[in-house]
Amino acid sequence: LFFKLSSWVAINGLWMELPLLVNVLPERWNLPAYLSIIIQVSLFSQVCLFEHVERLKVRTRKLLSILTSFACFVLIASAVVCSEAISVS
């Protein structure tokens, strides 16, 4: 539970500092408020849902590890667009 809440505090702290970095947006949106609400809802739903869900099975963990490793290797691939390297994935 502490790990879930610490990630919640860290992410919200990051978005609260956003007005210091971006003073005026062209669209006149209040971006930090929108992002904070979206992030809080997503993190709170994870805390509520995964407390009651059965633990992942070993096969699912292995599959997730393999897919994550594959995704990391795919991120290495890049292409040159307008003389800049851009990630293809």
TrEMBL record:
It is a multi-pass membrane protein. Signal peptide: none annotated. One of its GO terms (molecular function) is riboflavin transmembrane transporter activity. Its main location: membrane. It comes from the Eukaryota. Keywords: Cell membrane, Membrane, Transmembrane, Transmembrane helix, Transport. The chain crosses the membrane at residues 31-51, 63-86. It is found in: Cell membrane. It catalyses: riboflavin(in) = riboflavin(out). GO terms for cellular component: plasma membrane. Plasma membrane transporter mediating the uptake by cells of the water soluble vitamin B2/riboflavin that plays a key role in biochemical oxidation-reduction reactions of the carbohydrate, lipid, and amino acid metabolism. Belongs to the riboflavin transporter family. This is Riboflavin transporter.
